């Protein structure tokens, strides 16, 4: 069986102190429908990503940076810092070894910031809203849940989808199998039926055959 690593939300318990790693069950449903043949592998932040990569070898088809938590640059706190540092490890590994990487919501923000983008406070990005495919002009609806958006990307990234306020909702790396979108494909099954996700999935399937 092949695996796809996926990062988790970090939560601090309020009744007694405990830091927890959590992943929505919607991701399990998404894998059942769109990623048959792969098992989700929730990544623990206390285990170096290199340990997963070395242990799994060719059985690791790709990685998803999931949503949840703010970037530390936007809301400094120990949990965001822990997650940023771990996901930076993943990005470095994926760049070096051409491992397919998909960023969702916070994951997209993390990728954008890693390559030099600056995020800014936006309005109208909570709930369903319309976006447009830059190349085709096609409009479609997505479900976003973020307060910070991307106005401009680093030189190595290419914008693919924009919101009505011209902020960037999806992009890809120009030379590496790295893709990102600001909406939650796991929360609505049809959200997974898009060219961006399919391009990443092709890379995952190719990786697993090597």
From TrEMBL:
- CDD domains tied to this protein: GATase1_2 (cd01745)
Q: In what residue span(s) does the Glutamine amidotransferase domain sit?
A: 58-199
A GO CC annotation given for this chain: cytosol
Xref: Pfam families: GATase
SUPFAM superfamilies in the cross-refs: Class I glutamine amidotransferase-like
GO MF terms listed in the record are: hydrolase activity, acting on carbon-nitrogen (but not peptide) bonds, in linear amides
Alphabetized PANTHER family for the sequence: GLUTAMINE AMIDOTRANSFERASE PB2B2.05-RELATED (PTHR43235:SF1)
Name the record gives this protein: Glutamine amidotransferase domain-containing protein
Q: List the source organism.
A: Helicobacter hepaticus (strain ATCC 51449 / 3B1)
């Amino acid at each position: 069986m092949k695996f796809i690593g996926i990062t988790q939300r970090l939560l601090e318990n309020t009744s007694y102190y405990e830091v927890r790693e959590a992943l929505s069950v919607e991701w399990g449903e998404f894998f059942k429908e769109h990623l048959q043949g792969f098992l989700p592998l929730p990544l623990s932040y206390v285990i170096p990503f290199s340990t997963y990569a070395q242990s799994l070898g060719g059985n690791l088809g790709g990685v998803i940076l999931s949503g949840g938590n703010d970037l530390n640059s936007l809301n400094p706190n120990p949990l965001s810092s822990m997650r940023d540092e771990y996901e930076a490890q993943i990005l470095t590994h994926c760049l070096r070894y051409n491992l397919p990487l998909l960023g969702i919501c916070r994951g997209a923000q993390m990728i954008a910031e890693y390559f030099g983008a600056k995020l800014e406070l936006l309005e109208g990005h909570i709930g369903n809203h319309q976006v447009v495919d830059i190349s085709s002009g096609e409009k479609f609806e997505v479900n976003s849940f973020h307060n910070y958006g991307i106005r401009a990307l680093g030189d190595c990234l290419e914008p693919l989808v924009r919101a009505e306020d011209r902020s960037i909702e999806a992009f890809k790396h120009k030379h590496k199998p790295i893709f990102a979108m600001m909406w939650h494909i796991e929360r609505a099954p049809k959200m997974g039926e898009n060219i961006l996700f399919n391009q990443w999935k092709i890379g995952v399937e190719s990786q697993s055959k090597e």
